[in-house]
Amino acid sequence: MLQRKWLSVLLSVALMLGLAACNTGGGQQGDTSTAPGQEANATKPKLKVLYPSQPEDYNTYPVAAVLEERTGYKVQYDMLPADNPQDKLNIVIASGEEYDAIAVRGTSADKALFADYAVRGALTDLTPLIDEYGPNIKKALSEVTLDALTIDGKIYGIGNRTMEFVGGGLLIRQDWLDQLGLPLPTTVDEFVYVLEQFQEKDPGGNGGQNIPFSILGTDPFPANISGAFGLTNAWNEVDGELLPRALAPTLEDYVAFMNDLFQRKLLDNDFVINKVANLKEKLTNGQAGVIPTTWAEVTPLVEAIKKNHPEAKLAFIPTLQGADGQMGLSAASGFDRITMIPKSAKHKEDIIKWIDAMLEEETFKLVVLGEEGKHYTYENEAYVPINPIFTDERNRANNFLIGLDEEKYPIYWQARVRKDPVMFEAYEFLNMKQPEEAAQRDALRLAPYLPEFSKNSQSLDTLSNDTMVNLIFGSTSAGSLESFRQRFNAEGGEATVQEVNDWYKTSGN
Amino acid sequence: MLKKRNAKDWLLDGFIYLFMIALAVMTLTPFLNLLAKSVSEEWAVVSGKVTILPIGFQLETLKFVVTSSNFTSSLGISALVTVIGTVMAILLTAVTAYPLSKPQIPGVSFILILFVFTMLFSGGIIPNYLLIRELNLLNHLGSLILPGMISVFNLLVMKSYFEGLPEALEESAKIDGARTFTILFRIILPISSPVIATISLFYAVGYWNDFFSAMLYISDPALKTLQIYLKDIVINADLAALGMSPDDMMNLPGEGVRAAAVIASTVPILCVYPFLQKYFVKGVLIGSVKG
Amino acid sequence: MVRQIRQHWEMYLLLLPGILFMLLFKYTPMYGVLIAFQDFNIFSGIGGSPWVGLKQFEKLFHSPEFLQVLVNTLLISFYKIVLLFPLPILIALLLNEVRILWFKKTVQTIVYLPHFLSWVIITSLFVTILSPSGGMVNELIKMFGGSPIAFFTDNSVFRSLVVFTAGWKESGWNAIIFIAAISGIEQEQYEAAEIDGAGRIQRMLHITLPGILPTIVLMFILRIGNVLEAGTEQILTMYNPIVYATGDVIGTYVYRMGLGKLDYSFSTAVGLFNSVVGFLLVIFGNQMSKKLVKRSIW
To answer: What pLDDT shows up at residue C263?
Structure first.
C-alpha cells in the first residue's frame, strides 16, 4: 500500500515537471505585455542582456528599478559564470542566442574574443546606430575609446574605460623602520639595505620565521621593484620600441637581483606557493616586512595587523629608483567592460536607445551616485557617500553601466574611494604624491585588434611567468634565459613583437 | 552467544578504535577550521590565527550570508533540483538496472557495453549545449535534472546488488503468478534499501554539487544554484585580480564571508547521510522476507 | 530469438526509458568527438570546419613535454590505484568491526566530510599545515631534529603529497559503497561461522571480504578506466612551476597550453585519447575478472 502511494507521488512529480517544461518553452522570449498606466512604454520591447557575474541578482538590485523608470525599458539581465566566462560566451555567441547586448570584462582574453567575433561577422556594426540614436553616447565617449573598439572602420563595441590610476605598490612595516631609525627607502639599494636590516635586527622578533620581503607565486614581477628595472608592465618601451618583459635587456639584471634576494633569504623562500591570502596572512601576523598589494585591499590589512600588533604602522614605499634612474608604478588602462551587440539581437535600435538614455546626464548621475542628500552629499567640491545606503544601493552600480561619461565619471568615482578614509589615503599616496613619470601605462591596453597578440599573449605570459619563477627560485640556472627566449620567440613571441611594433610606430606615441 | 573476549580481541579492538579516531580527527579538522573562520572576527581570519577554535566569536558573518537573498534563492533552487532529481533518478535507475541484472535476457550485455561506453566517451560541451537548446531547456530547471537522471556508475552498483539477491525469491513469486513489475516493486525494491540508500546519497550529492550544467545551461540569475553562488563568492582572488576593475576589487568578500558561504552551502547536503544511515542495516529485510 | 524476446517483453519495457535517456542525452551529442579530427571553428560548426585527420593527436604526441607528462600521469595514477584503492575497503572492513553503534555512525559521517570541500580550500589548508616556516608538520619534524621539508616545491616529495591528499580527501567517501555492500551480506553466514569457532579476523577474511568482492571488482574495473585522469583539478590547485617536472600531468598540461586559445579540437583530441585508452582498459579488466573471479560488468 505504502509503495503504491510513493509511486503515485513520483509520477505526479514527473508529470508536473514535464508540464513546467512545456510552459516555459515559449514564454521566455521578448515579452511585450503592457501594464496599465504605462502607455508611454507600450511600444518599448523588453530587452535582454547578458552581463558579467556579480554575487547579487542584477534584476532585483536597486539600480535596475532606477534604470527602468528613467529609460522606460524593461530589461532582463542574464549573467555569465564567474569562472571561465569565455567558454560560455563563445557558445552563446556562436549559437546565436537572442541577446540584445552582451557585456564582458575588459581582460585581454575578453578583448581578443571581442575582436574575433567582430572579424567573423558575429557582431552588429554600431556606427550607423550610434549616429542615429546615440547623441549621448557620442558626447560621453572619447575618440580614443571608440577607436580602440573599431575594426575595419566600424565600431563594434562600447567600452567602459578603466580609471587610469596606480593600483599596486609595496606595503612596508613603517614601525619596523622607525624602530631601526631608517627612513622609507627611495632607491633599490636602500630597499635592499632595509631588507638586510629587517633580517639582521629582526624588529618583529620573529626569530627563524622572519620574512623581510614576500611576493606572490603567480607574479614574479612585484610592483615598484620591477619598475626600477624598467619592467613595470607586461610590455614596456625600450628605445622607442615596445618589448615584452621576456625580451627586455634589463631582464638578466632583474633575475640576478631577485635570485640573490632569494638565496640570501631576504625574499620569502616559500614565495612560489604564495596566494593573495598567504601574503596577507604573513604581513598581518607580523612575519613579513614588505609585501606587494593594492590600495583597494589595504583597509582589512590595517585592521587585522592592529589587532595583532597594536604598535604596527603600514605605509606604501615611494617609487623606487633603479641603478640607472629607472622607476615605474603600473597604471591601469584599457577597459573594465566591453559591450557588444550580437548579429542575432532582436532589438538593435532599442538597445542603443536604452544605452543612450542611460548616459543622459541626470540618469547617469542617479545611477552612479544616487540622490543627493539620500545617497551622497557634496562637500568641499567632492562627492561623499552616505553609508550604509550608498553601499547597499549603489555599490554595484558600475556593473550596470554601458559606456561612461568620461568627463564626469572620474569625479563621481572618487565617492567610492572616499567610502573609506584609510583606503583613500593609500590611493592618494600612490597616485597624487609620486613623481609624474612614475605612473606608466601599458600602451597595448588601448591598442586596436592585433591578431598575433590576441592569439599568443596569454600562453606567452604563462611561459614567461613560469620561467621567471624557476629562475628566481634557482631551479634553473640563469644561463637558460637564452634558451627560454628562443622558445618564447618560436612560440609566437617574435611575430607578436613585430606586429605590435608595426602598430606602435604608426600610432603616434 | 556472547563469547568471552580474549587478548587478541582486545588488541584488534584497540587498533580499530585508534585507527578510526585518528581518521576522524584528521578528516574533521578542515571543517572545524572553516566553521571557526566563519564565526571569528575578520582580523583573526586574515592573519591566519584561526585554527579550529574561533577567535572573537561572532555570528554576524554567518547571519549575513544565510539571510542574503542570493543565498536563500539559490538554496531553494538547489534543494528543488536535488529532491526531484534524486527521486526520479532512483526510479529510472532501478527499472533499468533490474533487467540488466539478468544475463540470460538476450541483448543485455550489449546494452551494458553501450552504457559503459558513455562513462568514458562524451560529445563535449558544444553538442550538449545545442541539445539542451533544441529541447528548449536552456534557463529551465529541467536542464539540471534530466541529463543526470541515469548515472552509469549508480546503474552498475544497483545491477550488481540485484545480482547478489537470492534467485529463490523471484522463483517462488513467479510460481505464484506474479508479473515482472510486481516482482520488482513488491519484492525486489523493498529488500534493496541498502543499495537504494547508497545511490540516493550518490545522486543527491551529485545533483547538489553539479556545477557544470548550471554554468552552461543557466544564465538567469533567478535560477542560480548554490554551486554557482559559491563560485561567485569564493572566486579565486588570485585569478580575478588580473581582470578586475577597482570597484570589483573593493567589493571582494572577506575571507570570513567565504568560509561562511562554504559552510552554509555544504551543511544541508551533509545532513542527508546520517538520515540514510539507518537503511544501512545488515540484511534485516532479506532475513525477514525469507523467514 | 523472437520467442525469447516475447517471453521477456516486460523486461524490455522496463529497459526502454533508460535506453531512451541514454540515447538522447549521451549518444545524440556524441558526434562532438569528430571535432578531434578537425581544425574546429565554433562559428563554422562541425559541418563547415576543415578536416585535418590525426593532426591534433600528432601535436600532442610530438610536443616536447609529452613524454614527461605521460610518465607523470601514469606514475601518479599508479600510486593512487595501488595505495588508495584498498584504503576505503580497509576502512569499511574495520568500521564493520566496531560494535558501538553511535561511534560507528559518527565516524562514518565524519570521514566523508572532506569530499564536500573543493580542492582550492583543501590545498590552502595543506599549504598552511605543511609550510616550512611555522607549519605544524615541519615544527614537529624540527622538534625531532629533522630539517624542514618544502612539500610543495620539492620534486622528490610532490607526487607523494598529491597521492596523500587525494587519499585523505576521498577515502572516506569511497568507503561508503563498501560499507553499503557489507550491510547486504546475510547475517546467517556470520552466525554459522561463529558456531564453527571462526575468529573475527577469519570471519572478516572469509565472509565479509568475499561478500563484497563483486563490488570491489566492479570498482576496480571502473577505476582503471580513469588511469589517464591523474587528478587534473587537484594538481591545478597544488602545483607550481618548480614541480612541473614531477607534477605536470596530461590534464594540467593541456589546460596550460590551451590558455586563451579556446582550441576545441586539441582538447577534444586529448580527451578522446584518454577515453580510448580508458575504454580498452575497462574491456581488458572486465575480461580478466571474468576469467579470474567469474565476475564481470557484462
So the answer is: 85
Domain presence at residue C32: no
User: Looking at the complex, does the CB of residue C153 fall below 8 Å from at least one CB of chain A?
Assistant: yes
CA–CA separation, A116 and A451 (whole Å): 8
Q: Are residues C141 and C286 in the same domain?
A: yes
Tell me the average pLDDT of chain A: 88
pLDDT of residue B85: 97
Q: Do A209 and C133 touch (CB under 8 A)?
A: yes
pLDDT digits (tens, 9 = 90+) for C64-82: 889 999 999 999 999 999 9
What is the tens place of the pLDDT at every residue in A471-489? 999 887 767 899 999 999 9
Q: Where are the beta strands (DSSP E) in A97-192?
A: 101-105, 150-151, 154-155, 157-161, 168-173
CB pairs under 8 A between A and C: 68
**Considering the domain boundaries, does residue C94 fall inside one?**
yes
Q: Which of B245, B257, B265 to mutate to test the interface with A (most CBs of A within 10 A)?
A: B245
Q: Is the confidence at residue C224, as pLDDT, over 50?
A: yes
The answer to whether C177 contacts B198, with C-beta atoms less than 8 Å apart, is: yes
Domain B62-290 CATH assignment equals 3.30.450.20: no
Instruction: Tell me if residue A78 falls in helix, strand or coil.
Output: strand
For A316, the 3-state DSSP assignment is strand
- Residue C1 sits in the same domain as residue C72: no
- Contacting chains of C (3 CB pairs or more, <8 Å) are A, B
Whether residue C140 sits in one domain with residue C221: yes
Residue C51 covered by a domain: no
C297 interaction partners in chain B (CB closer than 8 Å): 112, 116, 156
C68 and C21 assigned to the same domain: no
Report the residue of C118, C131, C149, C153 to disrupt the A interface, i.e. the one with the largest count of A CBs within 10 Å. Answer: C153
Predicted pLDDT at B177: 84
CATH number for the domain including C183? Answer: 1.10.3720.10
- Cα–Cα dist C251/C249, whole Å: 6
- Taking only Cα atoms into account, the Rg of chain B, rounded to an integer number of angstroms, comes to 24
Map grid coordinates 622578533 to a residue.
A205
Mean pLDDT value of segment A245-262: 95
Distance CA C230, CA C234 (A): 9
Q: Peptide bond before A388: cis, by omega within 30 degrees of 0?
A: yes
B residues 48-107 lying closer than 8 A (beta carbon) to A: 48-49, 69-70, 73, 84, 87-88, 91
Instruction: Check whether A40 has a pLDDT greater than 60.
Output: no
CA atoms of A409 and A399, how far apart (whole Å)? 13
pLDDT above 80 (res C259)? no
| Structural domain contains residue C122 | yes
Any idea what DSSP says for residue B51?
A: S
Domains assigned to chain A: 42-164+334-407 (3.40.190.10), 168-331+423-443 (3.40.190.10)
Same domain, C15 and C77: no
Stretch A262-288: mean pLDDT: 93
Q: What is the pTM of this model?
A: 0.90
Domain residues for the domain of C79 are 63-293
On the question of pLDDT at A324 being above 70, the answer is yes
Q: How many domains does chain C have?
A: 2
Contacts of B140 in chain A (CB under 8 A): 20-21, 24-25
ipTM of the complex: 0.92
Q: For cell 601576523, name the residue.
A: A285
Summarised one tens digit per residue, pLDDT across range B229-254 is 998 887 755 554 555 666 777 777 78
Q: Measure A228 CA to nearest chain C CA, in Å.
A: 25
